[in-house]
Amino acid sequence: MSTADPVSPSNSGATPLDLPSITTAPKALLHDHLDGGLRPQTVLELADRCGYDGLPESDGAALAQWFRNAADSGSLERYLETFAHTVAVMQTPEGLNRVAQECAEDLADDGVVYAEVRFAPEQHLERGLTLDQVVEHVLEGFRAGESAARVRGKRIRVGCLLTAMRHAARSREIAELAVRFRDRGVVGFDIAGAEAGFPPSRHLDAFEYMRASNAHFTIHAGEAFGLPSIQEAVAFCGTDRLGHGVRIVDDITVGSDGDASLGLLAAYIRDTRMPLELCPSSNVQTGAVDSLEKHPFDLLARLRFRVTVNTDNRLMSDTTMSREMHKLVGAFGYGWTDLERFTINAMKSAFIPFDERLELIDDVVKPGYAVLLG
């Protein structure tokens, strides 16, 4: 298949493709970490209230820059170390509730109309909360954030993904927690953490439990470790989506004539329409790709993989959904029709019922982009 064809028939539109305009566009987000999206000032205030004295900076702007610099190391392991500070201030009902509420409000202000935000409940037990209590406080925060956004004329729906840490041994317990709360705002399950040495197949009992419960799950795979991680997530674990999945490009060969040849794994993922939760800025920071311009997002989009645009960790990457889309526009020349397609890809892949996905696509996403296209 040739990769030379444009992604969309036209990049024209009545509205200029600048950052303010993209902010007004309806967007859907599938891969965002709650503990990676705190406001720097909130980190400072919660640290003061809970007595955490390990922060490297005492000023909001300086702290924001520290997170960005620390995450720019090019190492996934070093990138993950930054979470020690955010998780430390999310150990109380107040901290969990506030962070979740502000997350929903910030996403709504950025034009996100649907978001699935994930976090690992097992990391928030240091001050005596139970797993159930942790989830309850986060869900209360999301609902409060949705309500606060609605008062300002913003529409957003936030679903929660419960994450198990792949280096720990609580994945079955977290999977059961996700199923227990699935009628209260939890829409799925995930595993995350350093991939090397911790393959997804170590958590087969959790994935088998999710499938037996007719519940959805995604797996962080193909971010830092490559094709074996993706193969296990797909073939052994039966994942519904791939968290990142960027290294699927290693199974694609592009010839000098521009024609692409897909390996068996890449072809399977494309042909089954398995969603890729791609996070451009984060993938550069963690060393999964060398630069935004070399990100395989465009190749995968042209080959008609189901690509989606995501933030991963808004604090560490100093980003928003609008900024991620704007960067892709600058790197690959996308137009409004492309951004609409990526958004519809995400809505089609959401872990909510089909009729609810369709309603958001037909009543919110398409009308929103129709206005922008003119």
Automatic annotation (TrEMBL):
The keyword RNA-binding does not apply. It catalyses: 2'-deoxyadenosine + H2O + H(+) = 2'-deoxyinosine + NH4(+); adenosine + H2O + H(+) = inosine + NH4(+). Zn(2+) binds at H31, H33, H220, D312. It is an enzyme of class 3 (hydrolase). The active site is at E223 (proton donor). Keywords: Hydrolase, Metal-binding, Nucleotide metabolism, Zinc. The keyword Magnesium does not apply. Residues 1-14 have a biased composition (Polar residues). GO terms for cellular component: cytosol. GO terms for molecular function: 2'-deoxyadenosine deaminase activity; adenosine deaminase activity; zinc ion binding. The record marks H244 as: Important for catalytic activity. InterPro entries: A_deaminase, A_deaminase_dom, Ado/ade_deaminase, Metal_Hydrolase. Its EC number is 3.5.4.4. Residues 1-20 are annotated as: Disordered. One of its GO terms (biological process) is purine ribonucleoside monophosphate biosynthetic process. Residues 26-366 form the Adenosine deaminase domain. Binds 1 zinc ion per subunit. Substrate binds at H33, D35, G193. Pfam families: A_deaminase (PF00962). Belongs to the metallo-dependent hydrolases superfamily. Adenosine and AMP deaminases family. Adenosine deaminase subfamily. Catalyzes the hydrolytic deamination of adenosine and 2-deoxyadenosine. This is Adenosine deaminase.
